[in-house]
Each structure stands twice: as C-alpha cells, then as structure tokens.
Write a structure and sequence with these properties.
The protein has one helix at 34-37; strands at 15-19, 25-30, 43-45, 52-59, 64-65, 69-72, 78-80, 90-96. The radius of gyration is 13 Å and the shape is globular. Strand 1 and strand 2 form a beta hairpin. Helices cover 4% and strands 39% of the residues. The strands form two sheets. Strands 1, 2, 4, 5, 6 and 8 form a six-stranded antiparallel β-sheet that branches. It has a two-stranded antiparallel sheet with strand order 3-7. The chain is mainly β. The chain has one helix and eight strands, in the order ββαββββββ.
Length: 98
C-alpha cells in the first residue's frame, strides 16, 4: 500500500506485487513517479507473521541487484518497506529466511 495512487489514465506511479502461495517469495515493482504520488512509506501486507525476509532492490536500467537487507513482518503480517532508492522504476524481491 498504496498500490494505485497515480492517475488512472497514466502509465506512471503505480506499484504492483506478486507472491507465491506459500508467501515465501514476493516480487514488487514500483513504476517511475511512484514516490511522487504518495507521501507515505510503502508497506506490504500478507506476509507470514513475525518472520524475516531478505530484501534486494533490482535496478532495471542497469540490470543489477543491491546488497540484501533483512525486514521483519509484524503480527498483523505487514512489512514496512524501505524507501525507493530514486524516483525511477525499481523492483524489490523479498525472500523468506529460515
């Protein structure tokens, strides 16, 4: 959340998420302009409760992955996501840790 605060007739500023049924892998995509459409830090809902996920940013312009950081879900299955690295398109992969 938020997932669609951009203009509905535009092709910028939206956020998307896909996950496995087991909730052990989440793939998120933030379109260019997403950070401009919202003032709140993004969060993810639907993770496993009180579990740790390894998060890595993917830069689609360079085809490179960032160093991983660990994020922990709360009892309500939410994960507060890090701020996007820039105003451009970014993907974020979350992998459940054992």
């Amino acid at each position: 959340t938020p997932n669609k605060t951009a203009q509905t007739a535009g092709n910028e500023g939206w956020a998307y998420c896909a996950r496995t049924e087991e909730r052990d892998l989440f793939m998120l995509y933030f379109e260019r302009g997403y950070a401009e459409t919202t003032s709140q830090q993004p969060d993810l809902r639907g993770a496993l409760p009180e579990r740790t996920y390894r998060a890595t940013w993917f830069d689609p312009r360079k085809g490179t992955w960032s160093d991983a950081v660990e994020l922990t879900s709360d009892a309500w299955r939410r994960i507060k996501l890090p701020l996007l690295p820039s105003e451009e398109d970014w993907a974020l992969k979350l992998v459940l840790q054992p």
